[in-house]
Amino acid sequence: MLDALVLARIQFAANISFHILFPTITIALGWCLLFFKLRYHKTGRMVWMDLYRFWVKIFALTFALGVVSGITMSFQFGTNWPGFMETVGNVAGPLLAYEVLTAFFLEATFLGIMLFGFNRVPGWVHTLATVLVAVGTTASAFWIIVLNSWMHTPQGFEMINGVAHVTSWREVIFNPSMPYRLTHMLLASGLTVAFLIAGLSAWRKLKLGSGDNHSEAGLASRAGLRFGVILGAVLIPIQIFVGDLHGLNTLEHQPEKIAAMEGVWETQSRAPLLLFAVPNEAEKRNDYAVGIPGGASLILKHDINAEIQGLNSFESHPPVLPVFFGFRIMVGIGVLMLLLAWVGAWQLWRRGDTTPLLEKALVLMTFSGWVATLSGWYVTEIGRQPWLVQGVLTTADSVSAVIAPKIATTLIIYLGLYAFLLIAYISTLFHLSGKGIKAMGESAGMAGVKGLPELVAKNDSAVKPNTLNEGGAV
Amino acid sequence: MSELFQWVFSETGLPLVFLGLMGISMLIYAVLDGYDLGVGILMATRPEAERDTMIASIGPFWDANETWLVLGVGILLVAFPIAHGQVFGALYFPVSLMLVGLILRGVAFDFRAKSKAKYKHRWDVLFSLGSLVAALTQGYMLGKYIVGFSDGAGAMLFSIISAVCVTAAYVLMGASWLIMKTENGVQARAVNVARIMVPVVLAGLVLVSVVNPFVSERIFDRWFVWPQVALLALLPIATLALLFALWQRLGALGQPDVRHTGANQSATSLRRLWLLETTPFILCIGVFVLAFAGLAYSFYPYIIPGTMTVWDAASARESLTIILWGCFFVLPAIAGYTALSYWIFRGKTRSLSYV
């Protein structure tokens, strides 16, 4: 039987991995919805309303999955890791409390108004609700990233009788890795959504046939594809730049994580950038290594001859294999994203349209953001092991021994449930994309919200923003 | 005033304040998610058109309702971390089951309208099933808590009965909500269900009231000591009065001539009808509040009955202080926009139109 630590980690990893998929989408999608809505009010073009109405459905579904999988976390913090709250609860507690107080209620309440209040409130209130939902999801990300970053680069506290007491909240909140991690995560959310929108829109466009550039559905899928590709093309170079900065920050504070990411066993100068290798933990070397000499030194120290600290120089270091591969999967997807988004943007610019080949590639990349984000989180979280809070508390010391047999029996239920929900979610997204075509093709704008004047729906141009609702938003 | 302020932020006061905040969060959760879990359970036997109306009546609210659970559990986690680990360690299986129930109903709510039409019914089944499981496990956990997490057959039986009674209370809450928010057939059936639930809830309350004092001498002595007992007797008497009033209103609502149709609806009769339809829900809240007050009186100041007081379990004062300041500013805002939401969606539920 697996021991308590492994079980607690597997269960927590399963829950938190499942959970993070959904906020990764809602954080950025909330702002995209606001953008669609504002564009509609500004231009009066129905295509923006179509985009809003389609993606708000997906937002609602994704949000629900995020909420319920998040409730689980609030119980498991205490049951799986009692040592965490007992040791650093004075830091973690207020941060978690502020997340609930400032973000959860805000987003949940205004989501109700956003989803069900379309015909009940003036347009500006509905737009305000959309803004507050986006603010809420982002605020939630802020607090949880603050806490997570503190676990990597803790400061602003003192230990009294084995318990952390805060000496400076400013230092706790603005801990060294927080700005990088927060930006990196927000951009990851943006890219995940960019490729989700591009992928599903491309799938729709392919289903409709390339000749369709006049029907409601055709226009909406083109606009969605265009939006996704451009968003991706803009964000990916920024993400690569920010990712590099985050890496340098990690090198400063958690060099053993970087050594594991780069597979550097022995301290060496001119450390190679390994394109491929299989780290061999037992023999402390890399098998089948293919690398660019001096590459890692160049990237990390901006000097091809610089010395990189190896895993041998640390008292303890994380398991190398998952960190090494997680990092390569993340970077690989980033490169693919760069390629596809830029080719797409170039095609849109030169030809005004994307090629079916690119569209098929985008369909394959629909959930690539998820894979990259999860890989990145595995790199940073596994890369912190054996610590739970770097230098303060080990994961092994915070686990509950009594809980192991209970976890063993419930783990399989959770895993089954998550697999089922993931399949249901992905297939429903593609189903909705297909259904959207019919609904819009048959009678433009009639599905879903009532009270939208038909004259707006039938006429794509020259519509005053005020026709959407009595108040007239913006 | 400043003395009160000092007490609130003192070593003695802070844990009590957080106990109060946690208790109130849990009470609000029980009331709010109580009605939407109840509606979920009631949906099980209804045809699709009625299910749509019932779903629409809770649509804008359920999400925020469940956030009160996160707040309540969150306060336990951050203010009394040791107790959090012990309580949910002891309740591990029912908690896991409850989470599965809450997850299923939360997602089914959205999937039912978005997945393929042929799956809608299955998602509805999951929605009702999830609601039922969540209600039963919460009742079971309440029972386990009351008997101080003891494991004997009697404790088990008591917890199971508690599960049934809490579920009945949620169904009663849900039915009262439907009486207030819906019309015609859905409303009429809600009245019938509510009438069945009232005696079950009464039986549950009597059982808890009888068992609770005998769980420990400490609780017995709290209740049955002169002269407090005279004042405390008001609690069960008031509860009975509320349940009786509820029973009466439900009887009046069950009369066939309660709704005058057509032109003879004067403003006063409409207002009277509105009052009659709203009162059951208010009375239900009253019953929940009184039951909560009774339990709170029994267990104060323990966070784990008989074992751990709030002072034993509390986090450091400076951390609690900074959370409390947040509460001062944010809780009124939450109350404000929650009220705004209920005001926006006031009156009878309109036909289902999720965006």
Structure, described:
The complex is a heterodimer of chains A (about 475) and B (about 350). Chain A is mainly alpha-helical and about 475 residues long. Chain A contains 15 helices and 8 strands. In chain A, the strands form 4 sheets. In chain A, strands 1-2 form a two-stranded antiparallel sheet. In chain A, strands 3-6 form a two-stranded antiparallel sheet. Chain A has a two-stranded antiparallel sheet with strand order 4-5. In chain A, helix 1 runs antiparallel to helix 2, helix 6 crosses helix 11 and helix 6 packs antiparallel against helix 12. The longest helix of chain A is centred in the first third of the chain and has 40 residues. The C terminus of chain A is likely disordered. With about 350 residues, chain B is mainly α. Helix content of chain B is about 80%, strand content about 0%. Chain B has a two-stranded antiparallel sheet. In chain B, helix 2 packs antiparallel against helix 4 and helix 7 packs across helix 8. The longest helix of chain B is centred in the C-terminal third of the chain and has 33 residues. Chain B is globular. Chain B starts with a helix and ends in an 11-residue tail after the last helix. In chain B, about 50% of the residues are buried. The model of chain B has no long low-confidence stretch (mean pLDDT about 85). At the A-B interface, helix 2, helix 3, strand 2 and helix 14 of A face helix 4, helix 5, helix 6 and helix 15 of B.
Summarize this structure briefly.
Chain A is mainly alpha-helical and 474 residues long.
Topology:
The complex is a heterodimer of chains A (474) and B (355).
Chain A: H1 4-43, H2 46-80, H3 82-116, H4 123-152, E1 157-160, E2 163-166, H5 169-173, H6 178-208, H7 216-253, H8 255-262, E3 268-269, E4 273-280, E5 285-292, H9 295-301, E6 307-308, H10 320-351, H11 356-364, H12 368-382, E7 387-389, E8 393-394, H13 395-398, H14 404-442, H15 454-458
Antiparallel strand pairs in A: 1-2, 3-6, 4-5, 7-8
Chain B: H1 2-8, H2 13-42, H3 48-58, H4 62-79, H5 81-90, H6 92-114, H7 120-146, H8 153-181, H9 184-215, H10 217-223, H11 228-232, H12 234-254, H13 267-299, E1 302-304, E2 308-309, H14 310-313, H15 317-344
Antiparallel strand pairs in B: 1-2
Helix pairs in contact in B: 2-4, 2-7, 2-8, 2-13, 4-5, 6-7, 7-8, 8-9, 8-13, 9-10, 9-12, 9-13, 12-13
